[in-house]
């Protein structure tokens, strides 16, 4: 009956307000995640300025479900430090499911992106998320690993963290799949993107960074800003020293991120795994 409509609306508003308040607490988001039934494989969630589909039980998906983002604070800070990029193309090596693709493209600083991702599990969601956010026409996806050769290579799966898949063979047994291997300069050539057009390289490829850098020499020569996950323990002392000398000879600044803090230091003094930003 219509007489009950105002009461029903009041109850709905009260309920919505209560849940909005509860969602602001980390413990509530954690409990909500634990309460998901086992047959819930994917979740599609509307965020402030974008929408994403993700696996809520995988590392990145857990952060998206509980925190509402995955390292968007890092993406925003990197954009602040880079300022106005000289090029309007984003080059993303290790795009995963497209979280940072969306974040960086939403900034308005890039007109186009070239996104490279080898993991077939991530590729499906990457393409889906680009479509959800109407970015498919602006982002060219390459289904391959980035390295210093052309051919194919084994990709070893990170089962609990889809962002941890790597061409570096882990200790012990691990599932793997053969994927195409491409040089970065070859990828850009196929995408018809010149090195001068690239304004930022975002690279997180689980230990293959030294090899990828060898195939993007023109980008390094032009000192295009690079955000990368830097892991000396993965590379070994010899490769780490060579890589650090190479990068320090081209980039004047190295910003090291640790949690919510950041420090400017010589890349040759970075001994632990960190996200670093290389600037001219």
From TrEMBL:
<keyword id="KW-0808">Transferase</keyword>
<keyword id="KW-0489">Methyltransferase</keyword>
<dbReference type="GO" id="GO:0032259">
    <property type="term" value="P:methylation"/>
</dbReference>
<dbReference type="InterPro" id="IPR006342">
    <property type="entry name" value="FkbM_mtfrase"/>
</dbReference>
<dbReference type="GO" id="GO:0008168">
    <property type="term" value="F:methyltransferase activity"/>
</dbReference>
<dbReference type="InterPro" id="IPR052514">
    <property type="entry name" value="SAM-dependent_MTase"/>
</dbReference>
<dbReference type="Pfam" id="PF05050">
    <property type="entry name" value="Methyltransf_21"/>
</dbReference>
<feature type="domain" description="Methyltransferase FkbM">
    <location>
        <begin position="93"/>
        <end position="250"/>
    </location>
</feature>
<protein>
    <submittedName>
        <fullName>FkbM family methyltransferase</fullName>
    </submittedName>
</protein>
<dbReference type="InterPro" id="IPR029063">
    <property type="entry name" value="SAM-dependent_MTases_sf"/>
</dbReference>
